[in-house]
Amino acid sequence: MGKLTRRGLLLGGGAVAGYWAGRGWAPGLAPRNGIATLGGEAAGPTLLNDASLLSATPIHSHIRPAARGEALVGVFRAELAAARAAGRPVNVGAARHSMGGQAIPRDGHAITVDDAWIDPDPVTQTYRVNGGARWSQVIAALDAIGFSPAVMQSNHDFGVAATFSVNAHGWPVPYGPMGATVRSLRMVLPDGSLVTASRTENADLFRLAMGGYGLIGLIVDMELDMVPNQRLAPSFAVMPAADFPAAFLQAVNDPGIPMAYGRLNVARGSLFQEAMLVTYSPTADQSDLPAATGSGLTAHLASYIYRAQVGREALKDLRWWVESGLYPRLAGESTRNSLMNEPVVTLDDRNPSRVDILHEYFVPPAAFDGFLEVCREVIPDAFVEFLNVTLRYVGADPDSVLAHSPSPRIAAVMSFTQEMTRRAEADHRRMTQALIERIVALGGTYYLPYRPHATEAQFRAAYPRAGEFAAAKRALDPALTLRNNLWDTYLERS
């Protein structure tokens, strides 16, 4: 735990006071007596779950090889051969932070690679990395030599190859998805052959694997871009939500701003009326950069007020005041690596009867006003509790066949919390379908790693090249050895 700072005392004291003051009183939540429950931790060695706790799925086996290079190739080939012989599927995962079985092979062979080989080259400003390495391990290795991942997923728990496979992005600007920073990769195809893929070699396989959810091949290792680590100072600007796109794009296009994101207020009565733009710029002094730190005391204490919002609209207003009014007066400098060195557990739910569910929508900047209107009309009536939205920039993705951002987008990453009950799941599905229907009509898309609530028609409308992807996958993998719930639910009939 970090030192107790003035910022930690102020934010943490208010957070803990708010949390304990309302801990047993949540007038916005309906009683749960007699309501049918859902989900929970997977029980037994033949079940595998993901971050939703709603995806417990039977599997044949789950191995965790601590292997790299040719040894890992051998492990992959052996699992593929055994699965093909028995007619079972295979899937590789890392943190399995997806929320709809996208990294789980039903009745099949699950693989989690536990190895973190990282080989940076300061001359070319690239690094080679084992596919199973976590971003926390990458940061530790690069930080020691003064470098930083060009783009990584927003939390450091996730696997590098998994980030590429789900086409995830980060918040450094003006990049597209993390795959935009991948130079090349090696993967084992369903027939056991080892290939190298890049934008110039086996480019068709590269485009299919980027955002291909592990359905094309099992990634052995990758070569990615890295950039110099920097000491950065934050700036904050609060504005009407309608003014955010112009201010955000101006920041993104400023070469002196390497990191930027936004927030919107989430209280039902004033939903999405205000926005905050946060930008980071290099300081004049870039000497003697401190080692990357993890979550500080402030982040851990502030998580209490984050949780105290559930069922308490007044505390959502309080949190917005803390974030947009108090915190900007207290925030200080940080290194690029420290800003990205954040685990998911910082905002972990402490209530075993509820679960956090993420949404993400990729909105053309010109359609942002329409997006705000859709959310104001759909979200307040939902049974789920809306906790947070973070706005990030995603540059155009010309590579992935299943691209969520074929043109520049504002990505709205939303966090909801729901009861683990049938009524909550049913209403969440209703709300999600309503959002997707209208956001796709605006020219936007939705992100695929979360709850499989979209209809098949909505999936095809958001991802018009899905049929092309499915046909290429069948040609490459006629036995459909690489499978998961994304394939079973949406792509099998494409």
From TrEMBL:
Protein name per its UniProtKB record: FAD-binding protein
Pfam families: FAD_binding_4 (PF01565)
Organism: Pararhodobacter aggregans
Protein family: Belongs to the oxygen-dependent FAD-linked oxidoreductase family.
Coiled-coil parts of chain: none
Keywords: FAD, Flavoprotein, Oxidoreductase
Top-level taxon in the UniProt lineage: Bacteria
InterPro entries to which the protein is assigned, alphabetical: FAD-bd_PCMH, FAD-bd_PCMH-like_sf, FAD-bd_PCMH_sub2, FAD-linked_Oxase-like_C, FAD-linked_Oxidoreductases_BP, Oxid_FAD_bind_N, Vanillyl_alc_oxidase_C-sub2
GO molecular function annotations of the record: FAD binding; oxidoreductase activity
Limits of the FAD-binding PCMH-type domain: 54-229
